[in-house]
Amino acid sequence: MRRGAVFSTALCLLCGTALAHTEQSATGGLMSGLLHPVQGLDHLLAMVAVGIWGAFLGAPLVWALPVVFPLLMVIGAVLGIAGVPVASVEAGIAISVVLLGSVILTGWRAPVAAALALVAVFGVLHGHAHGTELPEAASPAAYSAGFVIATGLLHVAGIALGRLDCLPRGRALLRGTGAAMALAGTWMLARVWS
């Protein structure tokens, strides 16, 4: 009996507020934005992959890619918040995971302009999805700040993972990671198209 009461109390403490009470504050928007990129596997993988690829490519792309992606993501978010349609956003996001995983797998040393262009397009697509998924009661500015901060942290995590390349089996590990990302993206794309 006592265990049941403890368990019930613990569950109540872990439960969120009632759905009728939406987050009205900037803090709620910031938290929603911070959580959004890590709650979707597609966003998480793409953002980490940008960091890994940047680390593999080295200067100046190790820092340029993680700056360009969130900048263009903000532009995409503004388009999404404004209701400007962008064709095939979900398919484009899945393709971003496939292609970013593939460039890690193959070790493609893209020219600077090509790498920046690819990441810029993907940034717009991911940002548009964030903008259209803006919680109704969230502050758009706070939400945007949150997802940009989370994106930056995921890029830094990817850069740290990309540094494994220096270890004896690091390159093989990273290529395997790229393969897993590409397969996950292919699965996501199949789900979008089904």
From TrEMBL:
Q: Give the protein's recorded name.
A: HupE/UreJ family protein
Q: Does the keyword Transmembrane helix apply?
A: yes
Q: Does Metal-binding show up as a keyword for this record?
A: no
Originating organism: Ramlibacter henchirensis
Q: Where is the signal peptide?
A: 1-20
Pfam families per record: HupE_UreJ
Instruction: Supply the InterPro entries for this chain.
Output: HupE_UreJ
Keyword field: Membrane, Signal, Transmembrane, Transmembrane helix
* Transmembrane segments annotated in the record for this chain: 44-64, 71-104, 110-129, 141-161, 173-193
